[in-house]
Amino acid sequence: MIGGASTQETCITAFEELKMKKTQRFITFKIVDEKEVCVDATGGVEATWDDFVKSLPKTEARYGVFDYAFKTDDGRDVSKIIFIYWSPDDGPSRPKMIYAITKEDFKKKLVGIAKDLQANSLADVEQKAVDELVHKK
Question: What's CA 80's distance to the chain center, in Å?
Answer without folding.
Answer: 12
